[in-house]
Amino acid sequence: MFSSPVDVFVVGGGPAGLATAIAARHHGLSVVVADGAVPPIDKSCGEGLMPEGVEALRQLGVSLPADESFPFRGIRFVSDGVMAEAAFPRDPAYGIRRTHLHRLLLDRAAACGVHMLWHTAVAGIRPEGALVASTDEKETELVRARWVVGADGSFSRVRRWAELDRDNEAASQNKSLRFGFRRHYHVAPWSSFMELHWGRRCQVYVTPVSRGEVCVALISSDPKFRLRNDDALDEFPELRARLRGANLISSERGATTALRKLRSVYRGHAVLVGDASGGVDAITGEGLCLAFRQALLLGDCLASADLAHYQNAHRSLLRRPTLMSHLMLFMAKHSHLRRRTMQVFRSNPRSFKAMLALHVGEGSARHHVSNGIALGWKLLKA
Ligand SMILES: Cc1cc2nc3c(=O)[nH]c(=O)nc-3n(C[C@H](O)[C@H](O)[C@H](O)COP(=O)(O)OP(=O)(O)OC[C@H]3O[C@@H](n4cnc5c(N)ncnc54)[C@H](O)[C@@H]3O)c2cc1C
Predict the structure, then answer these.
(1) In this structure, are 150 and 62 located in the same domain?
(2) Cα(43) to centroid(ligand 1), Å
(3) Which residues contact ligand 1 via a Cβ below 6 A?
(4) Separation in Å, CA 203 to CA 62, 209, 217, 260
(5) Which of 126, 179, 199, 224 could pair covalently with 235 via S-S, beta carbons 3.0-4.6 A apart?
(6) Does residue 168 register a pLDDT over 60?
């Protein structure tokens, strides 16, 4: 297939894989991406891109077209009839359909000279490269590569092949496994905020993705997939009223989400990025942002052949979203604490604003510690 070895072979052409391919090409490395699916690749997602994610995309040379995305200026929580909202400290976040985002990344990768193999599953990795399966998956061919990047999502096979999956890590992922479904409605966004509705059995978030569309994503811990978008809306009459009469413009699509931390994200010539490298619960809306920031970092580290640096910096990138993930899952589980938090956020909008600033990586550590203490005190008094 390729007469000489390539520098980087990327398994998975989703957001993390394409972003890594672009970042590696920026350093002049030769790159091949293989994905079993065919573009544009869709996925169940809340489709919100946090401000740091938008900035990372800009660094990758991808800008969001005004007619295919929608800016939102903050987050609104709605729980038990109480509403609290806060704006991002500086730049807005954006909503964008996954298929549009995929096409933008794909166009950029093609313009950078990335070689892409679609409908091409990867069947294994070897010290010399990766084994690519033929379309009927009866034969495999070795593509020789210096580095193999696993960007193959949360159930990564590259992670398993490279023995980066440990039993205790897999068990902790299973414990935190949750289930998400998304649908799109043809309706003008009614708010310049992304809304997160907290319910008894699930959370539903609404992201404006264009001038005429919103994405509604449901996340629950129901392992039997019994709770779907229609039933979930019973818990949120105001939201149901907003969506009444709006045409559904996509079918329901599901995926799992989990909080997963790996001890190591590389071994030998194999290295992981995006959901394959661990991740946070979807409720944080941070998965894409993390994937793009990790991709930029990995591009630098592949060019300097310093994966130990990637490992350390990857760990620091995950720290804040992991903390937010724990906090939000705690709120999801403990309705009493959630009610108190909502009261505090409503009566002290600055505390919500401070939490959102932490979420999007703004402000100093000292500032966040003093805000955290103040919030804790207000919660005790509430
Ligand atoms: C319900 C839900 C809501 C979410 N909401 C948000 C949100 O609002 N904002 C946000 O930032 N994030 C959100 N996320 C998280 C986000 O979707 C993920 O973090 C993101 O998709 C990770 O991208 P990825 O490229 O790492 O993996 P994926 O998108 O899973 O891509 C992996 C790719 O690898 C390919 N692949 C797998 N195995 C092979 C193989 N053997 N050979 C070849 N190809 C292979 C697959 O076909 C796929 O294209 C949400 C997730 C869920 C489940």
Answers:
(1) yes
(2) 7
(3) 11-17, 34-37, 41, 43-49, 121-122, 151-153, 157, 180, 182, 217, 219, 255, 257, 274-276, 279, 282, 285-289, 291
(4) 31, 19, 8, 20
(5) 199
(6) no
